[in-house]
């Protein structure tokens, strides 16, 4: 599957956790998927020229075909996981917040439409309100956004973990267990602040920009965050 498109969808795709009673799923998920896809595509075509869209999608794509293509990926990778999460009670769809999420998608900053940041809806507060986490601290979890705290602590390679408070600098960690978007990465078994541009690095997660690059001398340093779309 196209890596960049996968990143666009992954933050809404990976949702499932614990609980036995099925929740009311609220709005028809297929309708939600179509509306989110259309909103994503609307902003992409406002922000990105042809070359930029090729970088984002790794292929040429026509505006009329964009919603259908994103809907297909949502249906394959997001809808089953949403249904699993809803049935297990780890998230709840807040129908009243759906319009706010759609409006926020249509107003997205063009610089956020890059392969690195990938227009994930879960970084938008209005969309986090739409997919409301239901798991309290110490509950079993599979993904960060199932937890009210915003952090699912998992051992490396484990599918499940437990909801905990977001780690702070100096908190103990194993590999990538400092939490997405926390501004921290795991080094020497302790959560460590990510490094600004120009600082030495060996991998992307060490950098605030998530972009460890080679400088003119061949040394690895934190670069600027990659920007694909230059519109407004």
UniProtKB/TrEMBL annotation:
Highest taxon listed in the record's lineage: Bacteria
Name this polypeptide is given: Dickkopf N-terminal cysteine-rich domain-containing protein
Organism whose genome encodes this protein: Microvenator marinus
